[in-house]
Each structure stands twice: as C-alpha cells, then as structure tokens.
Automatic annotation (TrEMBL):
<feature type="binding site">
    <location>
        <position position="5"/>
    </location>
    <ligand>
        <name>substrate</name>
    </ligand>
</feature>
<protein>
    <recommendedName>
        <fullName>Phosphopantetheine adenylyltransferase</fullName>
        <ecNumber>2.7.7.3</ecNumber>
    </recommendedName>
</protein>
<dbReference type="InterPro" id="IPR001980">
    <property type="entry name" value="PPAT"/>
</dbReference>
<comment type="similarity">
    <text>Belongs to the bacterial CoaD family.</text>
</comment>
<feature type="binding site">
    <location>
        <position position="83"/>
    </location>
    <ligand>
        <name>substrate</name>
    </ligand>
</feature>
<dbReference type="Pfam" id="PF01467">
    <property type="entry name" value="CTP_transf_like"/>
</dbReference>
<keyword id="KW-0173">Coenzyme A biosynthesis</keyword>
<keyword id="KW-0548">Nucleotidyltransferase</keyword>
<comment type="subunit">
    <text>Homohexamer.</text>
</comment>
<feature type="binding site">
    <location>
        <position position="13"/>
    </location>
    <ligand>
        <name>ATP</name>
    </ligand>
</feature>
<feature type="binding site">
    <location>
        <position position="37"/>
    </location>
    <ligand>
        <name>substrate</name>
    </ligand>
</feature>
<feature type="binding site">
    <location>
        <begin position="84"/>
        <end position="86"/>
    </location>
    <ligand>
        <name>ATP</name>
    </ligand>
</feature>
<dbReference type="GO" id="GO:0004595">
    <property type="term" value="F:pantetheine-phosphate adenylyltransferase activity"/>
</dbReference>
<feature type="binding site">
    <location>
        <position position="69"/>
    </location>
    <ligand>
        <name>substrate</name>
    </ligand>
</feature>
<dbReference type="InterPro" id="IPR004821">
    <property type="entry name" value="Cyt_trans-like"/>
</dbReference>
<keyword id="KW-0547">Nucleotide-binding</keyword>
<feature type="site" description="Transition state stabilizer">
    <location>
        <position position="13"/>
    </location>
</feature>
Amino acid sequence: MCPGSFDPVTYGHLDIFRRASALFDELVVATGTNISKSRLFDPDERLEMLREACADLPNVTVMGFTGLIVDFCKDIDAHAIVKGLRGGNDYEYELPMAQMNAHLTGVETVFVPTTASLGYVSSSLVKEVASLGGDISAFVPPAVLTRLTKKLAERE
C-alpha cells in the first residue's frame, strides 16, 4: 500500500504509483487523515482525484483510511508500505515511522526514490505556486489543475 495525503495528487505521486505497481501484483493507494497537516481538499475530493489519476493502472485500487497505517495494512492484508523519497529530509522523516511500523506489526516499508526530474515537486509547493498565480500544469494532471484552480478561486 502507498499511503499519503495527496492534497493534491501530483505527477511525482503518480511516478511512484506507476513504479510501485510494476513491483507488486496489487497496489492500494490510500489517503488518510493526519491531524498534523491542514488540507485544501476534503477526503472525498482527494479520493476522486486519485481514482481519476490512477484510472490507467489496472492493478491499483484507491481507498481511504483512518487511524494507524499498520492497522489499515492488517485490515487489507498488505505486507508492505511504499513511500516515495525526494531526498535526505524525506528519509530522515520516514525512517523512524518505518521502524515503528515494523516493530508494531512486522509490515515492511519499501522506499522508492523519485525520478530526478520530479524530486522537487510536492503538494505543498504546488499549492503555494498556484495560489500566487504560477503555472503548475507541468506538475499535476489536467483534472487536478482544474479542481485546484477552482478551489483556490473559491477561497478568495
């Protein structure tokens, strides 16, 4: 399973989904609730964007979850968590969680480095650039661009 907030889903996320779906027979892309992060899109909107973005990946299922990732993994019988890494800071953040998850349930974490050309792309940066009127069309699928543009206009 590949968890994240995906607020919104970017081409960086899709790169990880495509590569992970080639490594595993089945991949669940799951968006959860993390109280430490504020969200622009609600859970249903994020699920809908993910389903649209992953429509061409036949072995990918999109789901939502609450609570601990490892409990969700147990519920769906997932044996590995896939996390994309953009760089050293991501690794420093993700490693303790991977170790805790392995300790709690034995679920392993597989780190997949981002493609170099997408290493700087993050949902937060995409939202910031878009909110300041920048062109983010190279970073998100067209349907996400439309939704993001509309959502930001509504907030103004």
